[in-house]
Write a structure and sequence with these properties.
Layout: H1 2-24, E1 29-30, E2 39-40, H2 44-54, H3 56-74, H4 78-104, H5 108-143, H6 151-183
Antiparallel strand pairs: 1-2
Helix pairs in contact: 1-2, 1-3, 2-3, 2-4, 2-6, 3-4, 4-5, 5-6
Protein name: Riboflavin transporter
Main location: membrane
Family: Belongs to the prokaryotic riboflavin transporter (P-RFT) (TC 2.A.87) family.
Length: 189
């Protein structure tokens, strides 16, 4: 009986956090003018909460749900698929460092600090490489787009700082949520 209750609870949590992450995708804004097409949203915070509470597989399931819901609403055109692929990759780059740090460190503050630094660095490296080799060439081919700067310079002064800022801000908001969850009697973080 307990196993069924636990599975039901987990399924409901995944669905709710996936829906919340999907809704948070609508609140997006550019943060670096030179790469205004890169927009920051906080949809990875529910993904990280699910990762913290139930593990990385749950976080991945939440990321898949938010991407599928976004695709169902906006369509699965090639340009949307590129964006969803980038979003999913960035979610993975955040999930694994935080999952590792919460597994390895038993002190929440230390796990948050280590996870934040590792996730921000991994996100920046993965997404800069992904933008350089996949996303930017794909957008250039699909839309005959030619950036005003050489691609390497665009990565250095646009994409790299954007991902550093994104990782830091998502980590900060996640840390605030974790601290509030830690104070709640219902959640044992």
């Amino acid at each position: 009986m307990y196993k069924v209750h636990s599975q039901t609870r987990r399924s409901v949590m995944v669905a709710l956090l996936g829906a919340l992450a999907f809704l948070l995708m609508f609140i997006e804004f550019p943060v670096i003018p030179i790469v205004s097409y890169l927009k920051l949203d906080f949809s990875d915070v529910p993904v990280l909460v699910g990762t913290l509470l139930e593990g990385p597989v749950t976080g991945i399931m939440i990321a898949i749900i938010k991407c599928l819901l976004h695709g169902l609403v906006h369509g699965f055109a090639p340009v949307e698929l590129l964006g969803l692929g980038a979003d999913f990759c960035s979610s993975l780059a955040l999930i694994f460092p935080f999952a590792w740090s919460f597994h390895y460190f038993k002190q929440v503050k230390r796990a948050l600090w280590t996870g934040s630094v590792a996730a921000t660095v991994l996100l920046t490296v993965v997404m800069t490489i992904f933008n350089y080799y996949v996303l930017t060439p794909a957008y250039m081919a699909m839309f005959a787009w030619h950036p005003s700067l050489p691609i390497k310079q665009l990565m250095l002064i646009g994409v790299l700082p954007f991902n550093l800022l994104k990782g830091a801000l998502i980590s900060l908001v996640f840390a605030i949520v974790v601290i509030h969850l830690q104070q709640s009697k219902r959640f044992q973080v």
